[in-house]
Amino acid sequence: MLEVKGLMVFYENALAVNDLSLKVQAGQVVGVIGSNSAGKTTLMNTLSGLILDQRIKELRKGGERITIMGKVIHEGQDISDMPAYERVRLGIVLCRERHPVFPDSTVLENLAIAGHLRSKVEVAQTTELCFDLFPNLTRWRRRKAGFLSGGEQQMLAIGMALVVRPRLLLLDEPLLGLSPAMQEKVVEAIRSVREKTGVTIVIAEQFARPILPMLDFGYVIENGMLTLTGSGRDLMENPEVKSAYFGL
Amino acid sequence: MLQGTIIYGFINSVMLLLVALGFNLTFGISGVANFAFGALYITAGFLAWIGLNTLGLPYWLAGPAAVFITAVLAGLLYRFVVLRVRGLVVSEVIATFGVGLAILELFRFLGFIGFEYTLPEMLDLEVSLAGVIVDGQRLAILLVGAGLTLFLWWFTRHTRTGRAFRAIAQDEHTALTLGINTERVATVSVAFGAAYAAVAALVILPLGTIAVNEGYHVLVNALAVCIVGGLGSTLGVVVASFMIGFAQTFTATYLDTSWMMVVSLLAILVILLARPSGLFGSQKQLEERI
Ligand SMILES: Nc1ncnc2c1ncn2[C@@H]1O[C@H](COP(=O)(O)OP(=O)(O)OP(=O)(O)O)[C@@H](O)[C@H]1O
Ligand SMILES: [Mg+2]
To answer: CA torsion sign, A162 to A164 to A169 to A175?
Structure first.
């Protein structure tokens, strides 16, 4: 479904992603595991096309130079230069890290904005699905998203991504800043999204333990380089993963 | 006397509101600075004048054409001049202000000065409100003002594009990840705001002549209303229009008309000192929470 070939990303002269290649098959849940500054966000932004916008903005500002090499291929089509909003039309939807919601709009308005490309009926349906998945949000329908807790904002952000009706859902650190109990809930929700909609999912995460069990395939990256690959089960039993990510 | 002042204060407030709506739509709701706003207002006036007097078109054609051309001009201006500095608010302000200045001074240079530059009135009648005679044009201002306010309120809440305006103002990257073409939406917002400016020009300018300096006054007034009301809030703009509008009319009646612009400037100053996010602005407080 999606393939990355020889990706390299430089911020000025600093290499953030180094010769990375990966494959995502339709229907899979794929994990990208890495600690802070491993290059997860850079990778996800490259898959979603957001980095192209960042590059343009930096250029206008006369800020840092962002260089991207390598290819992103979606169902045989090279989309490396396709802007982010067009990739969304292909069904590639990114949920950015740190619960990206519109703080000044209510929960319902946030979901409606997310339905930009969808009909009213479709938005109404997925809005209901979203409240089923995250019952915590139900009582805050008319509350401004900026006043929700971090965990609630994260749920809303995932809900918004679902309203777009992705075929390939990219989740950047969905568990960041959540309590273990909340993390369980979000993992449970991701699992149920997959069952209900059959969407393909790529999760970038540093908390490996909660997500490894549901991965069909995982990539471990460090300093922008692939260090390990394997199924979720293989990775769970790998001693290096255990010591680095489980603190054992 | 007092009744007259109150009614004319009310009308003056609606005039401010008309002028501020378009500015608020672009700068407040979408977060795109368009400081060529006053110039576009005057451009619409001259376009309508040229349509009516030079080309001899009927009003029903010249009026809408002026609105349309102003909107397209604004869109092109944004697309080809401002887009290069998109995201850098200070540069956007300077670039658009510069373009506005160029447009206004070009009109002056080309000799568009004089009493012959007037637009015809829309409603040819007079009514008496509480014993005060109000002419048809001022009635038209009240009607159009109410109509445009309601339309804007509805538009930003219940249409796809209106929601996209709010989205790009709050977080452009998130908007992109939801499939919103942020640069196109910003361009549409500028064109839309310019159309509002043009309609305001068509209903307000018949009260006087189309004067280049009016372009600067319009910008200052729009800015004052939006800053006092809190950028982005339609309710805030309505309330602020009435506060400043009445203050201006009372100043003009009991002091002198030349003090009217001072009221706007003072209002900006006071609000920036006392409550920088405006009376109804909540954006700043919310941002701090995240
Ligand atoms: N805009 C930027 N400008 C310069 N360097 C950057 C920029 N964004 C990221 N980097 C650098 O690129 C490397 C990878 O960063 P990235 O954000 O992709 O890591 P990450 O795995 O998402 O980390 P985290 O878990 O902290 O979110 C880091 O060394 C970081 O400092
Ligand atoms: Mg990250």
So the answer is: negative
Which range marks the domain in which residue A183 is found? Answer: 26-50+83-246
In chain B, domain spans: 2-289
The answer as to whether A20 is a domain residue is: no
Q: Which CATH architecture has domain B2-289?
A: Orthogonal Bundle (1.10)
Q: How far apart, in whole angstroms, are the C-alpha atoms of residue B242 and residue B246?
A: 6
Minimum CA–CA partner of B173 in chain A: A50
Of A83, A96, A116, the CB nearest to B164: A116
Q: How confident is the model at residue B288 (pLDDT cuts 50, 70, 90)?
A: very low
Report yes or no: B3 at the A interface, CB cutoff 8 Å. Answer: no
pTM of the model: 0.88
Which among B170, B177, B179 is the nearest to A96, CB-wise?
A: B177
Report ipTM for this prediction: 0.91
Taking the C-alpha atoms of A17, A22, A26 and A28 in order, what is their torsion angle to the nearest 10 degrees?
Answer: -80
Instruction: For residue A11, give the 3-state DSSP assignment.
Output: strand
Q: Is residue A95 part of a domain?
A: yes
Contacts of A95 in chain B (CB under 8 A): 177
Whether residue A63 is contained in a domain is answered as no
Q: Say yes or no: CB of residue A51 within 6 Å of ligand 1.
A: no
Q: With contacts defined as CB-CB under 8 Å, which chain B residues touch A105?
A: 166, 170
**How many domains is chain A built from?**
1
- On average, the pLDDT of chain B sits at 87
Which tens digit of pLDDT belongs to each residue from A77-123? 999 999 999 999 999 999 999 888 999 899 999 999 999 999 999 99
Rounded to an integer, what is the distance from CA B236 to the centroid of its chain?
14
Residues of A in contact with B177 (CB under 8 A): 48, 50, 84, 88, 93-96, 100, 161
B282 pLDDT tier (thresholds 50, 70, 90): low
What does the pLDDT look like over A168-202, one tens digit per residue? 999 999 988 788 888 888 888 888 888 888 899 99
Contact B167 A101 (CB under 8 A): no
- Residue A30 lies inside a defined structural domain of this protein: yes
Residue B87 at interface with chain A, using a CB cutoff of 8 Å:
yes
